Amino acid sequence: xxxxxxxxxxxxxxxxxxxxxxxxxxxxxxxxxxxxxxxxxxxxxxxxxxxxxxxxxxxxxx
Length: 62
Fold this sequence. Notes:
Blueprint: H1 3-6, E1 13-18, E2 21-27, H2 35-45
Antiparallel strand pairs: 1-2
């Protein structure tokens, strides 16, 4: 998926299910730090490359 296909990274629905049951249902707008802030902070300490994954924790309900 490319950046133009994602849309607003600060307004993405996150759903996690297990055995057909929804266990988590949240939105990136609920994050303590914005997506941009996380990328900015990481970029200060390391070079981010295409394909890198950034794991930022889990929404409530885990």
